[in-house]
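Hi V.,

You were right to ask for the full record rather than a summary. Here it is.
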Amino acid sequence: MDSKPNDCKAIASFYGVSGKNLQHQYKDFLSDFKIWNQKPHAKEWLIFPKNIGKRLSIDETSLSNDELYTVLTNKAAKGRKGTIVAMVAGTKAETVIAIIEKIPLKQRNLVTEITLDMAGNMGLIAKKSFPNATRVIDRFHVQKLATEALQEIRIKYRWQAIDQENQAIEKAKKNKKRFEPEVLTNADTIKQLLARSRYFLYKNKSKWTANQLQRALLLFELYPDIKEAYNLSQGLQNIFENTTDKIIGFARLAKWHEKVNQSGFKSFNTISRTIINHYHNILNYFDNRSTNASAESFNAKIKAFRSQFRGVRNIEFFLFRLTNIYA
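Predicted structure:
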């Protein structure tokens, strides 16, 4: 009964009894929730030292009402039983470190690698808690910054197009004329082109459909800045995807930084400085091509688990069910 959140309702329906009553019976009598050894502190922290492995991931997730938990997971478990090593309420480094240090140092010293994002608190937790582990900043967090910078430029031009269209409509009304927007060869207006270009800018052009290719040609012709920003974003992604050596990766990133400097894009310069400030842990990606994808995947499982409960009313019981499956 611990495997699925809707088991109680399904069983209750089968036997024609109240699902709500059966859930209460399960929580209070049928399960081991009342005698769970971690129940007294479950809302604040949970640790499972036996689940520690050589390669870990650390990330944050929300259980309810935007209350964040720091989650430490074992990559070797592949999102199944034995995945959760620790869950700690909040993201404050000192609090999380104090809980993780309840795991004996001898076990923590066995960890050789930990993946994380660029948040300073996560870096400090990883450094203090696992002194022998190589810290690897997730490449997808770096790439996400570049795609967000690209979309920021597209959105800037979209607002300009909306403003220009409003001005043209007002002018037409003033002159008692009918407003006719400019229609491009693919039947988009300028405003529509900028709105509908959102999705293909995330993708490599080799994956564009025929319609997306036509739209891209029009967009890049009208807005060379967007084309240049797209090339910078794709260039960064290509470095991570097509490089296997750390030294070569470092050289390619240096060339990418130079292109960013020449572009003059403020947002991309911010990304460039961010990479420089974290370059050592970013370059560690090229050793084993490790990412934080397993942590993101596990966060998705927690959210799906939560949605089946239609929210989290009793955090301790929710964590009890969650850890029965994944710890």
